[in-house]
Design brief:
The protein has 2 domains: 5-118, no CATH class; 147-251, no CATH class. Strand 3 (29-32) and strand 4 (35-37) form a beta hairpin. By secondary structure, the protein is an alpha/beta fold. The chain contains 11 helices and 10 strands. It is 38% helix and 16% strand.
Length: 253
Amino acid sequence: MEEYIINKEKYEKIKKNSLVIYYSLKYDLFNINNQNVEMAKLYDYIKRYNGEYKYIVFYFDFLGGKLTLKQSDKLVCSIKKLERIRKIKNKIKYIYLKSGNSPYEQFVTTSAYILNIYYKKDKYEKLYDSICDYLDDRVVKTNACGFKDDKCIAKRDTNCTMGCCHHYKNKLFGVLYEKELNLCEYQKDKKCSAKCITCKMYMCDTLKKKGYNFNTRNVILIKRYFNPLQKIVLTTSFFTPKDKILRRINNLE
């Protein structure tokens, strides 16, 4: 898949042939052709000017402040409404980003990115991967679980080196009769090979007390792009690999 997030050099090269949709975090405004545009009227402005340009560029300037969860939700909702621009003309939509290093920027850029994706199956996979990256950035890369000598912060005083990657399972009757604690079969070399979004969202009580809590309301891409049944799948499919979860998601479209 083509990379639609462009650098300054690419932006300077194509901007004359592009309809630039500029968003300033500092002023919380969209601007098109030097005109400030209300979010509710964004589609009408794009439709008005679209025919004059070869590309569409979403220019997000997140400098001058920290993008909040509420602001990212508002931006995603605005961009989501622009899915109709595919009906105007199926043009390439690029993203040019000045990052303010807020974790919520990823919700917005992914929302703009998937405007280039036609098939629902591919769109869900991009959303899924982006959500996993967001969760990994917040938890795994920061070692929020506090692993030391293979023991997480919640089980530091126990002999358990499995973290959360375990379940009870009876050798004869499976999970119907809980008996023996088993390491998840998808944990390989102390890493998850399943890319299970449900497991990534799960936070134990110890981490919740530290402020870590992920759900279908504060992970904006889940909140805005998945229906109620799909959300149930995303929050209940523990110890399940990515391909199986995506198959269930697509079947519930």
